[in-house]
Records
---
Amino acid sequence: MDVRAQLASVFHLDKCLGCHTCSVVCKNVWTDRPGAEYMWWNNVETRPGTGYPRGWEDQDRWRGGWQAGDGGGPALRSGGRLSALAGIFHNPALPTLDDYYEPWTYRYGDLFDARASDVQPTARPVSLVTGAPLEVKKGPNWDDDLAGSKEYAARDPNLDALSPAERGQLFGVERLAFFHLPRTCNHCTNAACVAACPSGAIYKRGEDGLVVASSDRCRGWRQCISSCPYKKVFYNWKEGRSEKCIGCYPRVESGEAPACFAACPGRIRFQGVLLYDAERIREAAGAPERELVAAQRRIVLDPYDPEVAAAAGRCGLPEGVLAAARRSPAYAFVKRWEIALPLHPEWRTLPNVFYVPPLLPLFAEKPGDVARTADGLFTDGERSRIPLAYLARLFSGGDGAVVALALRKLVALRLWRRAETVGDVGPAEVEAAFAAARLCREDAAELHRLTTHAVLEERVVLPPALRAEAMAPGGQATA
Ligand code: SF4
Ligand code: SF4
Ligand code: SF4
């Protein structure tokens, strides 16, 4: 057993306000500089929709991530380092500025310098790339909240998984629904960007699994950009090198939560250590598509298991990391409660940002019918406003049962709280919901506390700073 520590995150989608505070904070801290204006290391997109950059999930076009190999484990869709070298001077699988948007500012000076006149002065938008006046037609969240739009929502590639009836359900005016999907780099365990970089400039930090790009070693080949299926590596056109989310490692190393976590007013973000068995990465990444969620969970190790603790010691993990793994909210959400799921596991990068799928409000078939369905007080997966098949395409490699179980846990939690606070749900109904969700009362209580009352220090449980030890001879920095 080769035990490694990975900082992993959980985003609870029912709690996301779509306020974009996370994106703005990250922009102000990390990408507010020339060449990086169009980059949103953290972005929040409305779903269904095409996201940022537009259509980033279309791997037939971008050839990102991994595909199942011929018995020898997963293979890079882009063809690996040798193909990368061949494609250095011509790589058609790269998004252009048009796929993102042309960043702009306004000529604010015009407001101050305008001559006295009866006409109100205006600040014209100008491109931050060319400086020329620009007619603004798109932006990173231009289509925010455009549920049901034929221009935006209808072009979501995941809608392929839906039957005509389900599509109709999604676009019927009285059933319109959407949710917000915040996205950062996933700091993947089987990172395609790392595998594709011909210069070895992107690497995974041994001590905490964060994936970072070295600006000294980057030669601007951009193979990382096409190989990342999440399109979370960006090219700084001014400096000629790739950049990406760094997991706010300078903050993390000093015990501070990443900026986008600390600033999130919806308190949807949780972070903690997952221990995993590096010897089984290949096996997990090569599992059949519908088993990928379970396979990824299987390589996550139980930090309370004495054998795991002993192996962690042999692998050089300090006691403080083990202690942090035991208090990790990520471990609770991902492994204990099985309620947080990876985004597009079928790309086989083993992403380390997990999502609690959204339990949207029940669809009311007639006025007043918002209280009970045959299955309980709130909706079940089949009556969810967002079809289960859509969520399964996003979070489980197409296996609806995995998402349905997570939704049942959310339903059970709400039923139980309703019984406690309003009192119009009977104990038998609550017990039935707990049984259907495979959730015990103690876990429900902890899940409820963590998602309602927990302060930042409980939502983000960081291991002690380990950079110095990792860099020492024999340390894990190069793992
Ligand atoms: Fe690399 Fe991050 Fe993309 Fe994963 S999400 S492949 S770690 S850039
Ligand atoms: Fe940006 Fe830090 Fe959040 Fe990464 S972790 S998206 S660098 S604020
Ligand atoms: Fe707002 Fe948090 Fe959602 Fe970002 S993740 S949009 S900060 S609620």
Note: The longest helix spans residues 400-421.
---
Amino acid sequence: MPPQLVAGGPRVLLRRLREIMAERQSAQARLDKLVSVIASNMVAEVCSIYLRRAGGVLELFATEGLNRNAVHRTRLKPGEGLVGLVAQTAAPLNLSNAPEHPSFSYRPETGEDPYRSFLAVPIVRGERVFGVLTVQNRTARHYDEEEEEALATIAMVLAEVVAQGTLVDPGEIDDSELSPTSPVTVQGEGLAEGLAIGSVFLHEPRVRVERMIADDPAAELRRLEEALESLRVAVDAMLESSELELTGDTREVIEAYRLFANDQGWTQRLMDAVRSGLTAEAAVERVQDELRARITRSNDVYLRDRLHDFEDLARRLLRHLSASDGATAEALPERAVVVARTMGPAELLDYARHGILGLVVEEAGQSSHIAIVARSMDIPLVGGAEGVADIARGGDSIVVDAESGEVRIRPPKEIVNAYRGKQALLAQRVARFAAIRDQPAITRDGTRITLNMNAGLVLDLPHLTDSGADGIGLFRTELQFLIGAKMPRLADQIALYRQVLDAAGGKPVVFRTLDLGGDKIPSYGRTAREENPALGWRAIRIALDRPGLLRYQMRALIMAAQGRPLRVMLPMIAELREFEQARLLIGKELERAERVGIATPGELRLGAMIEVPSLLFGLEQILSNADFLSVGSNDLLQFAFACDRTNPKVARRYDTLAPCVLSLLRHIATTANRLNRLTSVSVCGEIAGRPLEAMVLLALGFTSLSMHASMIGPVKMMARALDTRVLRPLVLELCGSSDATVRPLLLDFTERHGIPVGR
Ligand code: PEP
Ligand code: MG
């Protein structure tokens, strides 16, 4: 008789497995029983469980049919043999003649020579492959779909049990791969400064599937169908909603989403999983785990993007099934550190309102909106920390060190103590900076340096006082457009600008007009895709092509100023002509204000940013025409090095202290000085807020810097210890260096002269 599933199918088997798992005996005894029951139920001569150990090695943990002496002795390197292949690809393997397969590797200690047919499925949970479950038979045969389905279902239940740590005896395992309670360190990238020690709160956690095995499969199928239907209705409603006013790409995204919700393959797989005996929730998880594991191992970018859609759909479907709304900010515990796969800025604002200590987001980069908001709110943030949302569990202890980019989950006590020490040191440093808050930034040779802060959100405003900033050197007005779901109306813009001017209370504020485009695309305003967005239709280019937008913004600024002086700065100016055209538009808006009887600003100073290299070759012209200038070194260096600032592969390729950067900055300073305009030129890119780079700027003669508020203390401390007359000759000499960077030489200078350049 050919082997086949015994009567009652996987449902009976699942129930039996549940009983075994509940038995009070050693983990090994339970595992042994499991393989024996699976083998007999599937009429297989062999059933084996391989689990992952440190370094991805797969160890035989239990077997029925193979030589028992091989248990815990047979270990396969990642990718080794058929079992290794299944773990690596996270895909099942169904072979009627296994020894013929090119990946087959024979392990004599197992005594597996007589077995021809082979069926193996990965034991997956989240994106992690915990191990592999196999069945084998002597005869060369092909396991049918139903059998494959049944084994996958069992593997899913096993994955859940492995994740709970109950398949392994305490103390038996000395590595972290199988234990969900062991410490794990994930390396990410610090995106917003600080150090947080607290406990994990999972943002949009996987809905925990409590019940895996269905009592009444027919009823379960109905539940799934109903949930799928209400999911589809909800997606349709989203698409039809006039409130959201979906347009362009947003609409396309939702339309694609609707297609997925109706995807026959997806629905079919869900139904099959329920038919095999799982609850509807467990079926959603299983299908999702398979999809995720397969897609994350493929290099197909399109597929990877689609995965987010399916992930989101699966989460929603689970919520429809459990009728829960998921974790909300209201449920935040004390000392919460939020861990998320992805998160939008609005959600962060919501959490911040309820108080959180830190944040870890798997998918976030330096210039992401979430990073901008986190920095504004002084919430330490680590991004790019792959896998954290799967590894961390709600309530786990966690340390987020944005300085090193390390995230430590469930760290040992000693490690936490070490971080507490570091936290105390950081607090001392902050206290030292606070102590000089009201002192001026005067160098040892007597030059008064203006230290302004960069801002863009209402949340930044309190920093004007607590940082001791002289003013706001760069107010990024586009942030208001980026964080909202809708385009801000005139009244919204007026309200924000008025709040800023009121908070500044007479300190100067430089409003930069909208710097949209490039990597700053509002969710509602996506336009045609560009090949090179950084070089595309952005900033002043949009303003000149759509004059209404700039005039509207100027109208808001004029109305907010109510007669007070205004400073306005234009981004991405590439040539004088653009500056002059913008000035004309602004002039028209001033005329309009007079005409309709609105108070015009007491004085309106118009500046330009130096961030396009073409401007460097006509500096005299712009210096003679603009009221002030500010070096946007982030973009200027991106273009000078032809190096995308948002692409992590190249973003750190060139050092900001390369000799050519020194020469470039020197050219700006000398030209401005020649025209007696150096005091009207500031620097507002990232380099202004890095003490070592800022030191070079001061030596070159710049006297006005604008930076993130938290860097004012460190830069001021550096400035007060610096004698620019001593450093200047060295900096001029270093302009001619042939080294890739002169950072080490500058650090050496700071050590010899006792200049603090730490953060
Ligand atoms: C810059 O480019 O240096 C700058 C300050 O502007 P942003 O970072 O907003 O592009
Ligand atoms: Mg810029």
Note: The chain has four domains: 9-172, 184-205+327-422, 217-322, 434-451+633-683+685-759.
---
Amino acid sequence: MNYRHEFHAGNFADVLKHALLVRVLLYLRRKDKPFRYIDTHAGAGLFDLDGPEAQRSGEARGGILRLRDANISPEAAELLAPYLEAAGAGPLYPGSPKIAQAFLRPQDRGLCCELLPEAANHLRGALARDKRIKVIARDGFEGLNAFVPPPERRGLVLIDPPFERRDDYERVHDSLESALRKWPGGMFMVWQPVKEPEVADAFCAAVGGLAEALRIDLQVATSGKGLTRTGVIVVNPPYVLEQEAATLLPELTRVLAQDERAAFWLERLGAAKVSSQ
Ligand code: SAM
């Protein structure tokens, strides 16, 4: 495996994924009942935007660093504020488990799988050995199968693989299918790079065949070096998410645009309806 998130931390794809992650976690906090956060591909937890990898790629400059300084509409600013607060103002950008940690209450629990032992160790340090969150150095697809449904019966699973393997789409689809069989009411958030729109469309259609979901895509340019379009699929989305995404997407697209072809997509898959978790 060659993937190193240090090069991509805080880029436009992280911004979309993490801003939406925070909106779903805030929805789960609306009820006192405990929830569980499961992160199948958790990463190292904290990334130095001044470090050599981030500096070499420069990707955060088109993502979080641009967003921090941007003028945004008051409606979108209100929705982004909890994410921007969790992301902080310094050079250390938090990964998904560290962001989720900021929204877990004493009664909530987190479970993170990360295949690379060094990254898992780094993550344990980043989470300051928080007793509420378990970090396991193991395959996240196997972990997902082992850990759903969680005892709380409410919560969110983030599935965020590197998509370096040809069969990653298949593995995400199959593990989502079996997880939904065991936990039909669970919320799942799947991140995807959109390199070939036809492949992403076929994947979304397949996910829509499993459950109701929202597809949220952000394109910052049509050509350029590296990734220019990304997507998040939220299975069993909170009923507020569609409206929140409709408020956020035009602003994120405007602020993060790299050319005049920047665009967004917001689409219901499998006739998404209100979640009752
Ligand atoms: N979710 C993180 C975030 O938002 O900050 C970023 C995760 S990064 C895109 C993907 C991570 O998955 C890498 O840290 C990589 O080491 C890890 N990984 C790759 N294959 C894995 C597998 N089969 N199971 C668990 N982790 C894996």
Note: Residues 1, 3, 5, 17, 39, 41-43, 95-96, 113-116, 119, 139-141, 160-162 surround S-adenosylmethionine (CB under 6 Å).
---
Amino acid sequence: MNTQEKLKAFQQRIDKGEKIEPKDWMPERYRKQLIRMMSQHAHSEIVGMLPEGNWITRAPSLKRKMVLLAKVQDEAGHGLYLYSATETLGVKRQNLVEDYLYGKAKYSSIFNYPTLSYADICVIGWLVDGAAIVNQTMLAKSSYGPYARANIRICKEESFHKKQGYEMLAKMASGSPDQQKMAQDAVNRWWWPTLMMFGPPDTESPNSAELIKWRVKSKTNDELRQSFVDRSVMEAQAIGIEIPDPDLKYNEETGHWDFGEIPWDEFWRVIKGDGPMNRERLKARRKAYEEGAWVREAAMEYARKKKLKEDKAS
Ligand code: 3HC
């Protein structure tokens, strides 16, 4: 088949809902889009460990410390599943990682905000992981097999992340006046940055159309954002937390919650590297990466020697 015929056959497979596997023919653009999206997803998981890790030593009880430790460890695992899934596209993990540490690759804007109190940890579980679930449940049906399967595993763990955050927040929201204030203050700081996690408005999303054509995503940024708002408003009301949006209003006609204008200038500023914590996050990750070089070299040398021995024996 010539390229045109291959493209046509590929689109037919996508339209039939088939999974594309690593060894299958795929348009170079499809591969490049997947590498971009999947590697940035993986970077987000790893950087996302920093804001929460900041509170492990200060968790209010042994139980909360154990739960937070388990969650942060899960995020590392999500990063590994996603880097492994991205490597099936013929790229090296080291290059992907160095792309965001020293290059232009992105990670989710949400992780460039500070965690100022322990209530932030509750809100990250409820809102940030809640938003990730809305997105990743869709990605679990992605056309690229390894990405879909990685998200299936990730979603199972995310639901624990969201539940533990929501449970803690409910406790604080019905606790002392100081705890109630801490909880509401954290929601006020994290609400709008969480809506930005879903990406720019559809009208300014250069990648969405192509990703939807190839069923990498099946919903647009705005559609996902809307379903997240609809679900979060109810959850907030259930525990007496206020959503910090004076324009929030239930729309009887559409059956959705209309919400106010997202501060997009903040969004673009943060993803261009000028958010509250961008510099600290990259500095911490570069330090860990550079100080961990000896571990990688030792592991590679061990693997090399082991392979040499096996080749000699065979
Ligand atoms: N943060 C950083 N960059 C963002 C962004 C965000 N919240 N939203 C969009 N962008 C970037 C895009 O990467 C793109 O830049 P690029 O072309 O240089 O990569 C540009 O802004 C335009 O955005 P588009 O809408 O055209 O891009 P996409 O169609 O790729 O949509 C996305 C962006 C929604 C992040 C999509 O890539 C996606 O769903 N990615 C997979 C999921 C993911 O990465 N989630 C991040 C959170 S991980 C997490 O929450 C961990 C959990 O355990 C807490």
Note: The pocket of 3-hydroxybutanoyl-coenzyme A is lined by residues 36-37, 40-41, 44-45, 48, 75, 78, 106, 108-109, 128-129, 132, 135, 158, 196-200, 205-208, 211, 221, 271 (CB under 6 Å).
